[in-house]
Every structure is written in structure tokens, then in C-alpha cells.
């Protein structure tokens, strides 16, 4: 429970490029980056550095239950899903120790990829270098991989129009990356194509970086590896086109057929033999012939005989049918609803006040509970009683008087003096200053303080309630409703005998 929850990424359907900051953002006092708590204009966070503690919290200390993909010995790394404190879902790729011995080289590579922002890419939003640890952080895509939908489906096979959409969207992603100076993509395959919360196919950003500084760029079977890579061990833009050809074969056949075998079938004009039988003939032979011809050209032995990335987009664009049908409909998955869920538990007075956004009622409750919930978060008896300590407690006392009298700007100043000394940490002070910020129409600062209160006291429902109100003020209503529900759960847990309020 506590600090590891966060919201699904939202894509901007109207714009190919999204705003991205190029400077390193400031950190909160607990190590959280401002970028981790805020998002850029297009809904994707600005690229930033994460602390190892943040990512451990997000992934429940890299629990095996959070693993979403794991590669073998050829490219030993693991991808976890996780949730940040601001409730955003993330994917975390954890490399083996010393895969990138030089942290600067790893960071430079990550920052290069992190500058990319495109609606067809599962974008890189951060990295972490801490001791021997090297981690990448990306947008989380909740609706599985192309491999799962093609090879391991349970409910329905991918319809033909969706396969054409996948091919175009990935070609568009590669074209964007190439135009932005990142033409090399390592080991493009059906596992690198992900589906976002709306069912739209996206290209994983992880393939834009090698698995290690000197490591292999391909982890798949040699039968699917570009021939020139086998000769010289180098990835070129033409190698990426070859790999795109293998993905086209996957889309056509619904199977992972070695390119050499597929080319023999193509030369024999056995197009119907190659096509996925699960389509049951529901495809256009003319369109399939165009895709098959494109795949054949992509898979040419000589790199110079393959089409370029722009040619892929040009060839696939006219084939798109059913543009009016949403991807989630084609995939047969529920629509990503923004409606807030009904709280699972009856709300307390605090919960009710927060759900109604009644700041006055929240103020009355915080005045009434005073500091009883700070018990156990400090060990004052072990602190040396100094003049600094007396000054700090005097600042808190002045803040409490101003808070009681609804002089919220004065309370912010006094509480800030108390917090800045740093000798004593009080979740109640953070909650009170959070409300003061809300009263002064500063919801960003209020959210930050509520998150700080949660980090000091991870199962304190008041911290979650204050986050719910701040998120509502920021028009993040689904996240606010989730927070409200979680706070109610924590209250119920306490009433059953657990610690929290």
C-alpha cells in the first residue's frame, strides 16, 4: 500500500510531437523529481532522473510479481511495471549489474532517447544510475504485446484492418525516430510492439538503446537476424528495415516464420498458404499482396536493395481501412473510461469532506485531530534540546495559531520555517500546509505536500485524502477518485486494528 500507486499514461491523439524539457528538474526533499510528479503539456512527463528509492517503491522492491517481461541469457534484463507516487503507471527496465560500466555513457544515451516524444512511441520518461544499478523508465502500456495478440490470443485473433494499422503505426514511429536522429532500433520484433490504454499500437522505446554498452543488439533466433549483422555485428538503418520485414511476416501469417522459409513461399506464389488461417479469409487479397511484396523487399539479402523507412509509410498509408473504428473496438478490449469509480467503503467525515471538496470542513477536522497522528514518526527524546529545536517548535506553534485562525498565508510561512530546519518531520504539518496551499489556490504545491506526508507516514489516510482534493483541483478526477477510495480502505484497515487514520 502507500507510496507505490500511479495513473495510466494518456496519449495526445492530435499531435505527433510533445513538449519535452531538456534540463534536469529539481528534486523534492524526499528525492522525488518535480517531473515525476508533474506532466508536460501532452500528458507525458518530461524526461528526468529517478532515484533508486523511488523505483524500488514503485515496483514493491522489484518484486517478481511485478515482472512483465524477462529476456534470456543473450540479453539479460528484466522489465517491471510499477506505480509512482503521482499514480502514474510506469515500465522499468532493469539491466544486469555493470551492463553499462560508465554511468555517464548510460545517462547520455538515455537522455538522447528521452528527448523523443511521439504518440506512436511508448516514450522514455526517465532513468536511474545508482551504484551498479542502471534502469530505464518508460510509459506503461497495459494491453500486452503484438506477440501476445498474434501468437497467444485467447479471445479473438487480430482482424486484418488492425494488422494493417499496426504495420503503419510502427512504420510511422520508426520514421519519426529516424527524422529525430535516432535511426537505429535494436531487435525490432513482435514483443517490441505494445498496445496502450486505448488499444493503439506503440513502439517500445527500449529498443532505441542497446542492452549494454558492448552487448549484442539482437536477442532473437539467428534465423531472424539481419544477414549483415551476422557478418559485422553492426546495426544500420537497413537492418531495422529487415527486422520490420519480419514483423510484417508475423502480421501476415500469425506465426513466427523464419524469413528464409517465408521468402521461399513468396517466390512460390503461395500467398494463401502463408496467410493466417485464423483470419478465415477475412482479408483483401490485393492488400495482402502489397504487404507481402513490401515484406519481400524489406528482407532482401543486400541492405541497399531494401526500401527506406519513408517508403514503408508511403506504401502502408493507402491500405488503411476502418479509420473510423477505434483500436480498442478492434482489439475487443474495454474502452479506457474516465468515469470515477464508486468508493468501495463508506466515507468518514474526512472522506466525505474531501469528496465534496469542502475545504472549510477539512480545516475543522485538521484543527480537531491536532498532532495525534504524528505519534511514532519522530523520536524527539533522542534529539538534543537546542535553541534551534526551540525555535523550530516555536515556528510550528505560530503556524498552528495562524492555521486555527484561518490566516493561511502566515501559516504557510511558519510551517515552511519548521519544515526547512529538517530536524523533525511531521506528516500533520505537511497535511496542514497542503490545505493552506489549497486555500490559496496553489494545488500543485498542495499535492506535493500531501505526497510528502504520505512518504513520512505511508499508510496515513489523511495524506491520501489531501492528495485526492489536490488532484481534483488539478482536474485529474479519475486519479482523485482512486485516491479517495484508497484513503477509505486505509481507514477501514485502521478500524480493524491496523495503524493509520
Task: Provide structural commentary.
With 501 residues, the chain is of the alpha+beta class. Helices cover 44% and strands 9% of the residues. It contains 20 helices and 9 strands. The protein has a 6-stranded mixed beta sheet with strand order 1-6-7-4-3-2, sandwiched between helices. The two termini are 14 Å apart. The relative contact order is 0.09. Keywords: Kinase, Transferase. This is Serine/threonine-protein kinase BSK1.
Query: From the alpha-carbon coordinates, what is the Rg to the nearest angstrom?
Result: 26 Å
Indicate the multimeric state: single chain
Average pLDDT level: 82
**How far is the N terminus from the C terminus?**
14 Å
Determine the fraction of residues in helical runs and give it as a percent range. Answer: 40-55%
Enumerate how many helices there are, as a single number: 20
Strand order within the widest beta sheet: 1-6-7-4-3-2
Largest sheet: 6 strands, mixed
Q: What structural class should be given to the helix and strand makeup?
A: alpha+beta
Q: What share of the residues does DSSP label as strand, in percent?
A: 5-15%
The count of β-strands is 9
Element string (H = helix, E = strand): HEHEEEHEEEHHEEHHHHHHHHHHHHHHH
**Shape verdict:** elongated
Uncertain stretches: 1-41, 338-344, 379-384
Amino acid at each position: 500500500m502507500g507510496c507505490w500507486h500511479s495513473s495510466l499514461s494518456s496519449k495526445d491523439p492530435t499531435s505527433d510531437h510533445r513538449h519535452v524539457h531538456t534540463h534536469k528538474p529539481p528534486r523534492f526533499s524526499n528525492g522525488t523529481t518535480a517531473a515525476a510528479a508533474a506532466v508536460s503539456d501532452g500528458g507525458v512527463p518530461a524526461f528526468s532522473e529517478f532515484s533508486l528509492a523511488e523505483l524500488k517503491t514503485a515496483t514493491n522492491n522489484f518484486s517478481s510479481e511485478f515482472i512483465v517481461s524477462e529476456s534470456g541469457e543473450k540479453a539479460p534484463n528484466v522489465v517491471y511495471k510499477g506505480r509512482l507516487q503521482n499514480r502514474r503507471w510506469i515500465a522499468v527496465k532493469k539491466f544486469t549489474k555493470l551492463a553499462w560500466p560508465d554511468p555517464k555513457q548510460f545517462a547520455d544515451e538515455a537522455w538522447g532517447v528521452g528527448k523523443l516524444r511521439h504518440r506512436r512511441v511508448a516514450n522514455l520518461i526517465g532513468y536511474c544510475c545508482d551504484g551498479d544499478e542502471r534502469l530505464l523508465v518508460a510509459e506503461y502500456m497495459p494491453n500486452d504485446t503484438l506477440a501476445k495478440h498474434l501468437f497467444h490470443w485467447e479471445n479473438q485473433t487480430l482482424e486484418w484492418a488492425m494488422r494493417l494499422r499496426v504495420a503503419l503505426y510502427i512504420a510511422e514511429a520508426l520514421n519519426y525516430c529516424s527524422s529525430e536522429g535516432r535511426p537505429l532500433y535494436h531487435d525490432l520484433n513482435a514483443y517490441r510492439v505494445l498496445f496502450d490504454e486505448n488499444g493503439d499500437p506503440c513502439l517500445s522505446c527500449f529498443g532505441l538503446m542497446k542492452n549494454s554498452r558492448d552487448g549484442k543488439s539482437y536477442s532473437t533466433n539467428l534465423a531472424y537476424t539481419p544477414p549483415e549483422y551476422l557478418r559485422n555485428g553492426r546495426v544500420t538503418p537497413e537492418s531495422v528495415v529487415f527486422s520490420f520485414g519480419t514483423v510484417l511476416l508475423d502480421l501476415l501469417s500469425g506465426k513466427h516464420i523464419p524469413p528464409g522459409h517465408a521468402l521461399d513461399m513468396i517466390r512460390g506464389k503461395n500467398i494463401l498458404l502463408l496467410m493466417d488461417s485464423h483470419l478465415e479469409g477475412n482479408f483483401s487479397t490485393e492488400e495482402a499482396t502489397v504487404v507481402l511484396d513490401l515484406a519481400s523487399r524489406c528482407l532482401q539479402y543486400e541492405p541497399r536493395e531494401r526500401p527506406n523507412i519513408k517508403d514503408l509509410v508511403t506504401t502502408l498509408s493507402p491500405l488503411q481501412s476502418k479509420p473510423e473504428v477505434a483500436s480498442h473496438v478492434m482489439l475487443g478490449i474495454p474502452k479506457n473510461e474516465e468515469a470515477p469509480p464508486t468508493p468501495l467503503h463508506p466515507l468518514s467525515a474526512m472522506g466525505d469532506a474531501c469528496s465534496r471538496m469542502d475545504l472549510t470542513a477539512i480545516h475543522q477536522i485538521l484543527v480537531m485531530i491536532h498532532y495525534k497522528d504524528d505519534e511514532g514518526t519522530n523520536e524527539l527524546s533522542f534529539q538534543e534540546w537546542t535553541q534551534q529545536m526551540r525555535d523550530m517548535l516555536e515556528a510550528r506553534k505560530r503556524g498552528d495559531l495562524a492555521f486555527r485562525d484561518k490566516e493561511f498565508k502566515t501559516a504557510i510561512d511558519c510551517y515552511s520555517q519548521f519544515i526547512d530546519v529538517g530536524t523533525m518531520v511531521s506528516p500533520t504539518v505537511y497535511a496542514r500546509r497542503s490545505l493552506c496551499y489549497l486555500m490559496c489556490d496553489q494545488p500543485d504545491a498542495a499535492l506535493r505536500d500531501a505526497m510528502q506526508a504520505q512518504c513520512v507516514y505511508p499508510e496515513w489516510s489523511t495524506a491520501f485524502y489531501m492528495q485526492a482534493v489536490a488532484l481534483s483541483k488539478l482536474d485529474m478526477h479519475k486519479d482523485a477518485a482512486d485516491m479517495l477510495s484508497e484513503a477509505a480502505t486505509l481507514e477501514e484497515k485502521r478500524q480493524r486494528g491496523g495503524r493509520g487514520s
